[in-house]
Design goal:
Blueprint lengths: L2 E5 L4 H11 L6 E6 L5 H9 L3 E5 L8 H4 L7 E4 L11 H18 L6 E6 L8 H4 L21 E3 L4 E3 L1 H20 L4 E8 L30 H11 L5 H13 L9 E6 L11 H7 L12
Parallel strand pairs: 1-2, 1-4, 2-3, 4-5, 5-8, 8-9
Antiparallel strand pairs: 6-7
Helix pairs in contact: 1-8, 4-6
Length: about 300
């Protein structure tokens, strides 16, 4: 595997992945696609990476050949891009994000070479389990990827109730599309969908994880009597994904051999090794060789 196309490359996770691939000598070409404009720091770093090409483009437009003419010639695609990459996305945002994923998937069917699609899904696809499984006895590791989807987390941030159903619907649709493309290509496209946890911008320290559930949402004031808020804090803290574990997960998703997978498209949870969390890491270990090292409770 030599060439990778990253969608949403200027966003939080997309930029972390692009920065990682830029210094990995296994990849001699990285196409960093985004509809936005690099900030000063990003521009400086892009200029210093000879193997990275920034591709300004609009993935929501099928007619935009700036991305469509490039996707056929890469070995792998890491798909982060969304109209609104946050859980409070509107249904209008949802519709455009679906267009983006559908365009990526449709374009891949026109290729002829073996390709790996890494679709960055979300924990919010299983968010309804927050109220049905989380906190129950013996629930550690029981939130497996083969359970029925529980689409959309509904939670109280302390200031307002947030419903991520729309955002999560896009992610579930992307998982299903990834599987469909893999099957339609007779396994030429192998796919990994990552139900990623919470990997914050920058340092990503656990002390800033809270019931807000997103960097775009404000958390209410601390109230030790509010057990619901305490539980919601813990729900989001226990899906922490450290920067180093994120880097390992991206690498493994790109290079893991698919021969031993149960199917040509798999789904894994993307969290660090957080003690007692409900999320199962078994699928990632068995399919990708993912062995996270960090634990949120070493810092909290």
């Amino acid at each position: 595997m030599k060439s990778v196309l990253v969608t949403g490359a200027l966003g939080n996770l997309g930029w972390k992945a692009t920065s990682q691939l830029a210094v990995d000598d296994r990849f001699d070409r990285v196409l960093a696609c985004d509809s936005g404009t690099p900030d000063f720091d990003q521009s400086e770093r892009l200029a210093s990476w000879p193997q990275v090409e920034f591709v300004p483009c609009d993935l929501s437009r099928w007619a935009d050949l700036r991305w469509r003419s490039r996707i056929l010639d890469v070995d792998a695609i890491i798909h982060f891009a969304a109209q609104n990459p946050f859980p409070e996305a509107s249904w209008e945002d949802v519709a455009v994000s679906m267009d983006i994923t559908n365009h990526i998937a449709t374009a891949l069917l026109a290729a002829s070479r073996p390709q790996r699609l890494v679709f960055v899904s979300s924990n919010h696809v299983m968010g309804r389990y927050k109220d049905s499984l989380f906190g129950q006895a013996n629930s550690s590791g029981q939130l497996r990827t083969d359970l029925e989807p529980g689409v959309g987390t509904i939670w109280d941030s302390g200031l307002k109730v947030i419903d991520s159903t729309g955002y999560a619907t896009v992610k579930l649709a992307g998982e299903r599309m990834s599987r469909a493309i893999s099957e339609a290509s007779n396994g030429r496209v192998t796919a990994v969908s990552i139900r990623i946890g919470w990997c914050q911008p920058g340092e990503n320290h656990p002390s800033t994880l809270s019931a807000a559930g997103s960097i775009t949402i404000e958390r209410g004031a601390e109230d030790p009597k509010d057990s619901g808020l305490v539980d919601t804090d813990r729900w989001f803290q226990e899906m922490w994904l450290s920067n180093s574990d994120f880097a390992q997960l991206i690498e493994k998703s790109l290079v893991a051999e698919a021969g031993s997978w149960p199917a040509s498209a798999v789904i894994v949870n993307g969290m660090s090794k957080n003690r007692g969390m409900v999320w199962s890491l078994r699928e990632g270990t068995e399919c990708l060789g993912y062995e996270p090292q960090d634990d949120v409770y070493l810092y909290l």
